[in-house]
Specification:
This protein is 43% helix and 19% strand. With 116 residues, the chain is of the alpha+beta class. Strands 1-2-3-4 form a 4-stranded antiparallel beta sheet, covered by helices on one side. The protein is elongated and about 55 Å long. The termini are far apart.
């Protein structure tokens, strides 16, 4: 994997095997990542610096939004999965997904209880 550092290591620009460059940075102990959408390294570095400075400005202003947690994404998936597969999958099948996600995430949450 090809990797470059910017601003003294505050930003990393790298390729993940494809043609597009990606960037990552850590702000307040939290890792952030984005795709630059660029094939050219020079343009990718410019994007990464602008992106990082934007993130840092939002952080200092207190308006930096945190990414969703896996549990939030799983909750949304379960809501949509039941609707999308309605009539195509049995309730037992849908319940199996809920059970597997419950094993991965918070087990005590009421949101993970199977509907009765």
């Amino acid at each position: 994997m090809s990797r470059h550092e910017l601003l003294g290591g505050l930003i990393q620009v790298y390729r993940r095997g494809g043609r597009k460059w990606h960037c990552s940075a850590s702000i307040e102990g939290r890792q952030y990542r984005a795709t630059t959408g660029e094939d050219d390294l020079v343009l990718a570095k410019q994007f990464a610096e602008d992106w990082f400075l934007s993130l840092r400005g939002k952080s200092q202003a207190g308006i930096l939004k945190n990414e969703k947690t896996f549990k939030q994404a799983a909750d949304q998936f379960l809501k949509e999965y039941e609707i999308i597969t309605e009539g195509q999958r049995s309730p037992k099948w849908v319940s199996g997904y809920r059970d597997r996600l419950r094993l991965i995430c918070c087990r005590s949450s009421a949101a993970w209880a199977s509907p009765r």
